[in-house]
Amino acid sequence: MLDIKFIRENQELIKSAARKKHIEFDVEKLVALDDKRRELLSIIEGRRTEQNQASEKIAKAANPEERQALIDSMKSVKEAMEADEAKMKDILHNWQLYMVAVPNLPDVSVPEGDSDKDNKEVRAYGVKKSFSFQPKNHIEILEALGMLDLERGTKVAGFRGYFLKGDAVLLMFAIWQFAMAELVKKGFTPMSAPSLLKKAPFIGTGYLPQGEEDLYKTQDGDYLAGTAEVATMAYYMDDVIDLKNLPIKLVSFSPCFRREAGSHGKDTKGLIRVHEFEKIEQVVLCEAKHEESVRLHEEITANAEELMQKLGLAYHVVINCAGDLGLGQVKKYDIEAWVPTENAYRETHSASYFHDFQTRRLNIRYRDLADGKLKFAHSLNSTAAPTPRLLVPIIEQFQQEDGSVLIPPVLHQYMHGITKLERKNAAA
User: Catalytic residues, which ones?
Assistant: First the structure.
C-alpha cells in the first residue's frame, strides 16, 4: 500500500505503474473518494469540537434549567454526528478497498512486457547437459525407481496429489537441511512458520484481495499460505523495530498450499506444479532506503544462486518484465533451472523487493535516529529451496543411463551414506 499523500501528488506515476503491470486501477476514483473522506472528516471533527465545548458549558451550568437547555440544544448536533459517522464508515470501507488495490511502482530497470515470455535473461550458469542416451523425465525415473506414486497420490489427495517414497524423501529432507545450514552460516535466523493464518497477513503481504482464487480458505475464514513469506512478514506486524537490529534476515520453513486455480491445464502431472509442497524462504526487513533494498535484493538473489551452484545445477536468471510483476513488487528476479527433457528452463526461485508496500499495510516501523521519526521499513524475500519442485532438475540433470540418479556431493552428508538413487534403495 502506498501513502495517500504520495498517490495524490503522483497520479500519473500510479497510472503508469498500472499500465505497465497490466492492472486495472482508476486513480481518479480513489482521489475523489479521498476528497469525500477528507471533507466528511473535517465536518465530523467540527461537530466533535462543538460537542466538547458544549460539554464544558453543561458542566459549568449554574442551574438545572440552563443545563437541560444546553443538553437539548445538542441533540441535533449528536444526531448529525451519528449520521456523518455512518457515512464515514461506508466511505472508509470503499476507500480502503481502493487503497489496497493501488499498484506499487516498478523500478526503472524493469523492462516493459506483457507476461513471463517477455522476461529478460540476466545471466546463465553451468552447462546444459547432453546425454549419450535418451534422457527420461523425472516422472519416468522416479516411478521406475519406486520413489514416486502419482496414481495413489491422486486416489488419496485428488488432482495433483502425489506420494514420494524411499530415498527420494531423504533427498528432499537433505535439500532442506543443506539450504538451512548454508543460510544460517550467512547470518540468517532460522524459523519454522505456520501455514494456517488469519486474513490480515495475506492483506498485509499483498496476496489478498487480488490473489484469493489461488488460496485455500477454511470454514473459519482463515487461509492456507503458499509461502512462508506471509507468516514471517506478519511476525513483526504492528511492531516498532529497534534500528540497530536492521537489517533483519530470516530463513523460514513451512508447508505450503496453492490451489493453482489460474494454472488449470499446466503441468498436470509430476512435481513442477502441485497443490501441497514445502519451501524454505529468505525474508529481509531493512531501513527505508532504496539503495539498501537494491543491495539486499542482489544479496538474497546471490544466496539462492549459490545454493544452485553448489548443487551443480545449470540455470539462468531473468529479470521479470512489468507485466509479470505482482501488485506490490518493485523488482523481481526469477531463477530457472534447466530441465533437459523439456529443453527449457523452469522457474525454481523468485527474489523480490517491495519498498514499504508490505510494511505499510502490516504497520512495521522503526525510529530513524536522524530525525527521530517513525518510518516504515522496507521488505524483501527470495526462495531458498522449493520442494518437491527442485527435485525435478536434480533428477533430470543427474540421471544415469542405468536409470539411477547421482546425488549432488554437497548433499551426501545429509543422506546417511547414500550417494545415488537406485532401485535397490526404493521402498516397496
Answer: 258, 273, 347, 350, 389
Q: What pTM was estimated for this model as a whole?
A: 0.91
Residue 200: CB partners within 8 Å, gap ≥ 6?
234, 237
pLDDT at 426 over 70: no
CA proximity to 176, closest of 271, 279, 284, 302: 279
Q: Do the Cβ atoms of 369 and 243 come closer than 8 Å?
A: yes
Q: Helical H runs in 259-365?
A: 290-311, 357-362
Cα–Cα distance, 190 to 176 (Å, whole number): 12
Q: Which one-letter amino acid corresponds to residue 319?
A: I
Describe the strand order of the beta sheet including 223-224 as a list of residue ranges: 196-197, 223-224, 216-217
Nearest to 232 by CA among 330, 379, 332: 379
Distance CA 337, CA 42 (A): 57
Nine-digit cell string for 387: 520442494
Pick from 82, 95, 75, 5: which is nearest to 44 by CA?
Answer: 82
For the chain, what percentages of helix, strand and coil (3-state, to nearest 5) are there?
45, 20, 35
Q: What whole-number distance in Å separates Cα of residue 384 and Cα of residue 253?
A: 10
> How is residue 69 written as a grid cell?
437547555
Pairing assessment for the beta strands 365-367 and 240-241 based on DSSP bridges? parallel
Mean pLDDT score, 100-114: 96
Query: Tens of pLDDT along 305-331?
Result: 999 999 999 999 999 999 999 999 999
Question: Strands 240-241 and 248-257: what pairing?
Answer: unpaired
Counting every residue, how long is the chain?
428
| Distances, alpha carbon 357 to alpha carbons 315, 327, 330, 364, 373, in Å | 30, 9, 9, 11, 18
- For the record, the C-alpha cell of 281 comes out as 524462504
DSSP strand E in 126-206: where?
A: 148-149, 163-164, 189-192, 196-197
- In this structure, which amino acid lies at residue 244? K
Phi-psi map region of 416: left, alpha, beta (phi>0 left; psi -120 to 50 alpha): left
- The whole-number pLDDT of residue 56 equals 78
User: What count of other Cβ atoms lies within 10 Å of the Cβ of residue 42?
Assistant: 10
Starting from the edge strand earliest in sequence, which strands make up the sheet with 120-125, in order? Answer: 120-125, 315-319, 331-339, 344-353, 378-387, 276-286, 248-257, 189-192
For residue 217, give the C-alpha cell. 480458505
d(CA 352, CA 106): 11
What span, in angstroms and rounded, lies between the C-alpha atoms of 128 and 310?
Answer: 16
